[in-house]
Every structure is written in C-alpha cells, then in structure tokens.
Design goal:
This protein is of the alpha+beta class and about 525 residues long. It has 15 helices and 18 strands. The strands form four sheets. The chain has a six-stranded antiparallel beta sheet. A five-stranded antiparallel beta sheet has the order 8-7-11-10-9.
Length: about 525
Amino acid sequence: MQPPDYTFDAKRLLALDGYDIVDTPDEAGFDDIVLLAAQICDVPVALVSFVGRDRQWFKARVGFEPCETNLESSVCAHALIEPDLLIIPDLTQDERTSANPLVTGEPYIRFYAGAPLRTAAGDVIGSLCVIDGKPRPDGLTQAQASALRSLSGQVMSQLELRRAIGERDRAMALQQTDELRREESERQYKTLFDAITDGFCIVEMNFDGSLPADYRFVEINPAFAQQTGLEDARGKWMRDLAPDHEQHWFDLYGGVAMTGQPVRFEQFAAQLGGRWYDVHAFPVGNPALHQVGILFNDVTDRKSTELLRKQVEQQQEVLNKELSHRMKNTFAMVQAIASQTLRRVSDREPVEAFTQRIQALSTAHDVLVKQNWAAANMDIVVRSVLATLAEKDRFVITGPGIGLGARATLALSLLLHELTTNAVKYGALSNENGRVSVDWRLDVIDGTEELTLAWRETGGPVVTEPSQKGFGSRLIRMGLIGTGGVELCYQPQGFSAEFKAPLAQLQEAENPGN
C-alpha cells in the first residue's frame, strides 16, 4: 500500500529539513534511546526513523542493518498520520503492510509499534518504532506504551537541544561583528531552550572548605518545575527549597565544579517526590565561579519496571529455596528408608558408602538449585562436596572459574566423594599430617578446550594399588563424564590422579550420550 498523502506534505518536509538531521553521524543520545526502547518493549529491533521525500532514514538503530529504506518498505510512513501510537500486532494481516517487501521478504518483520515524532508546531517528521519478527496479538503493555511515548519525546528533546546548540554557536560566532544580531540570536536560543522537554538548569556551587554545602539556581528552563516539582527556583538555594535533599547530589555536582570533568549518572531523589533521574552534569563558564550545567530527565517509570523485574527474581529465589528444602527432605527420606531396609546387613561399610553417596548428591543438588539449575560454578561444587567429608584446611584448591552443566555437576560430586572417602580411609587424610591438592586447568587440544582435574595426596601412609576394585573404584575410572580419560598413579609418597574431558561436554545440560 502506498504511503499516506501527508508523507509528501511540503510543510512537514520543511520542518524535517529544519532540524538538519538526515545523513548525520551516529550520536550517543539517540543510540541510548533505541537501546532503551528495545529493552523496555522486549523486541530485537528499535529505530529512530525520519521519513523524507523519497526514503526513510534511520538516525539510530539496533537490530536492523540498513541505514535507510525506500518509502515502499516504510511502515513508519503510516505512523505519520496517527494521533498516538501506531500498533500493528501482525503486519501480514494489515492491508497497509501485508505487501510490504520487509514483511513478504527478509527480514520478515511481523510486529510494529511506532510513536510519532511530533514538533511543537504539530508536524510529524518520523517515528520512534519497535519491531519484532513474530506477531504480538497483545501489542504493548500499558507501561511499555507509556515508555515508548516518553522516549519519543526524548528524541524530540534531543533534536531541539541539538538545534538549540547549533543556534547558540551561530549566535556566538556573530557576536563579535553584530551586536543586534547577537541579541536576536539569543532570543531565538531562549525560545528553543524553553521548548526543551528535558529539565535543564545551571547551578552555582557553594563550598564549606572542600565540602560541597549547597548550590544556587542561576538558570532554569520551563520544564525544570515539571521534572522536579520545585516552583520559582531561580536565584534560590537548594537547601532552602529542599532542606533534607540528599548529600550525594551536592557531592556529585561539587565534583564536577572542582575537577571540570562531566558526569552521567542515574540517582534517586527522595525529597523530590521519590523520583529517579537520568542526569548529565558538566562544567560551564569560568571555573572560578563553580557553575555546573545540569540536563536531566525523570526516569521513574523505567526504574519502576526494573524494580518489578527484581521482585519477580526475588520470588523465583524463594521458589528455589523451597525446592532445595523439599529436595533435602527427599534425600533424607531416601537415607531413612535405606537405613531401615539395610539395618540387618552385618557389613556396614557398603551401607555407609551408599548413605554418603546420597549426601554427595544432595550437596550437588543444593549447589544447582542455588544456581537456578543453570551453570554451577566448579569451585563452589568442589569446595561444597569436600567440606562435607573433611576439614577444609586439609585441602589446597585452585582453578579458574568454570561453569558446569547439571549432569557434570552430579558426576563430579560423586567422583570427589569417592576420592575423599578413599583418602580418609587409606590415604593422605587417614592421619593428621596428610594434605590433598585439588586443581584444574583448561588446555586447547586440536582446537578443542579440554578440562584437566588433578588430585594429589601427600603426607599420608605408603600406598599401593588395591587388588580388589569395587563400585567406588569403577566410579573413579569412569572419570568426569563417564567416558574415561583417567590416569591413576599409586606412588609410595601418595596417590594421584588426573581426569580429562572436553569442556563443551561438561557444560551440556544433559549427559553427552543422551
């Protein structure tokens, strides 16, 4: 479907030309907005799109390689005539977009939501849009829609500020030659300055010795009161306006005034209605005056979304703890049933070995639950298992941080249990002087990463290779993933072993043979 007639409106195109934005280099302010839009709306693609006479051009983009498309491929052109957001849950089902080349061919886009970029005069020059490769019948949540509107406002604020800075620079260049033109340019700059929707102020710092004590508002824009709730602040001191304003604000701005280094940060202001702010503070004017320019924006809605996500994560943590508790109860029940079932067995050694192996599995499960059954840290697994069988000062444990899959975690736990049990019965841990070194490393063999785990005992009694090999010995010889890769050495000075396995197999969620 052809773009709407308004796409070619002369007044609209003139307004776009007035920003002198098309074909300009990337700018961090716009890039930050599309990244934030993609994160908030949970989509792979976000664009700041300006629709011109014969093409649409992207000032900022994430997840979309081309920097422009023709109007035939433009969905944003249809957003130009929308009073609010344009949301199309399934582009293949909308007559405006079903034949769009980007819908029928690569990259096969399916969902679109765009917020018009509207000037103060009401001209729409483009859109801030988010795109997904699959339909979204429910469109955007209320919070996502609100955030997209706010972010489109920030695009316009960036454009206005960019144009304001350009006007200011031109006015300053003319100042030396034409005082009348300078005054006119200052009036134009003030008009643009007043139109910026971001809060802006210039403050003058007051120091008590080296401690930032207060600051006075030298200049504020109309949006300042909307963003802060502070009325008639020009010329007043912050301590008078908000006596309990947090000290960190004074420290941050004082640091800019003293060092001359700009800062960008997000901070909470309890005394300004419990709001979060995204702030860019920079030195202005004569350094001796200790003046700081502050450009800021209320990001409380986004922070609320982040807080909600953290609450969900905390709820998941509670569920994991409950799962761990139930798992421990299950292992305890298995141990109790085994004890009752095997109580008449006269040879207690295999019964105790079985019980200890259950305990090793319980320890491994506890580690995995704490890691949400994702990659378990090998160092934590090793230390957790060994701590259940011997004092930790009997071990020297070293190795890089490596994540293990769930199956490898369970196998490693049983392996370490058998090695430690043997050391307690026959090896270095059977006396008071013996020690065990446990270390691991990564090597690259023929382009493949391989893990080597070394177990070395010293200071124990003289050892010899056992003549009988039970289940524990077979378990040790199965190695890290049940496929071997084991070297055992029974030297008189102490037992040692090396276990090797490909790292990729150790990090698989399931057994490599499954």
